[in-house]
Amino acid sequence: MAWTWQFEDAEGRPVDGPNEAFSSQSDAESWLGQTWRDLVTKGAATAILAEDDRTEYKMSLLPAGG
After folding, report:
1. DSSP letter (8 states) at residue 9
2. What is the reported pLDDT for 28?
3. Residue 1 DSSP label
4. CA distance to 19, 23, 27, 52, per residue, from 47 (Å)
5. In sequence order, what DSSP letters do the residues of 10-66 get, joined into one string?
6. What are the pLDDT digits (tens) for 8-22?
7. What's the predicted TM-score (pTM) here?
8. What span, in angstroms and rounded, lies between the C-alpha atoms of 22 and 14?
């Protein structure tokens, strides 16, 4: 099982981001916690966590109301 992130802009279009794969959900979430600000500066507004082909969840990277 591999955990990966995908990124979208505010309009839901894919945004290129680092192509990292993690062996656990917690490793993937820790990585995002360290890099989300850089991703936002590159145009990412949403992060989508997937385990192989299954979406675990989708979350905003923007401040509330932003």
Report:
1. -
2. 98
3. -
4. 13, 18, 15, 15
5. TTS-EE-----EESSHHHHHHHHHHHHHHHHHTT--EEEEEETTEEEEEEE-SPTT-
6. 999 999 999 999 999
7. 0.91
8. 20
